[in-house]
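name: query_chain
kind: protein
chains: 1
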Amino acid sequence: MNKVILMGRLTRDPEVRYTQTNNTLVSSFSLAVNRRFVRQGEERQADFVNIVAWSKLGEFCSKYFKKGQQVGVIGRLQTRNWDDDQGQKHYITEVVAEEAYFADSKRDNESGSANFDATFGTMPETASGNSDFEVSSGDDLPF
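structure:
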C-alpha cells in the first residue's frame, strides 16, 4: 500500500504548469512538515516535502493555497528520474496529491486575507443562524 498523509505549512505559493501533450494543469508546491519529536536542547526539525497536484485538485490548490498556510494532503509517494540537457541523471521523490484540505483554524484565517471557511465537520447554519440539527439543553442524549 502506498499512502501518505501530511500536514504542514506551504513554503511558497503553488506553481502552475501545463503538460505539453494534452494541456493538463499541474500544480506543485512544497510543505514544511514538523517532525513529531524534539531532542532536548535542539530546535524542532522540519522536513520539506514536494507535492504535485493534477487537474481539478491542482486548480483548487493553485487558487486557494498560499505561502504560510497550514494544509493537509493525502496522496501517494512517487519517485522518478530523468536526464537533463548535459546528460546528468536527476532523481526526485514527491507526493502526488489525491486529496487536499485547509488545516488552519478559522481564527488564523480571520486575521489574513483568505475569503473561505476553513472549518470542517460543522453543521451548516440556516439563514436564522440555527441549524436544523440543533439540540436544546433540555433534550436527553443517548450517550
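note: The chain is about 10% helix and 40% strand.
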